[in-house]
Amino acid sequence: MSLENEINAKKVVQHMMQHDLFSQWLGIEVLEIKEGVSKIKMTVRPEMINGLGIVHGGIAFALADSAFAFACNNRNNLSVALDTSINFLKPVHVNDILIAEAKEIHNGRSTGLYHISITNQIDKEVAIFKGTCFRTNKNLI
Hints:
Thiol Ester Dehydrase, Chain A, 28% helix
């Protein structure tokens, strides 16, 4: 990837984060952006816990979904989720630090396929997310 493409990818994600109030509420921090790749993290807060005393599955899903969105949109081609799925592997608890890393598996003209791995602060994989996006051929910025 060229330096220019990397700079543009970071600008797109910065723009997305500025307007993404939900990712801001989650407390997401962007760690790395490259074309078709993103790595983000967040810390689990008490209000994210479900009635069973573990993190609500929607929180892990939302973190992965944000990583997915940053990876599939960072070429400045507005892309939306077409199909997603998640597998929960281990429970997540308050104060866990979650890292979601999205990697592009396929970059097609009209669709893209991404694998997102979520790990905790001790590098244990807690969830796996797969997302397929649809490319609109419209610019984000």
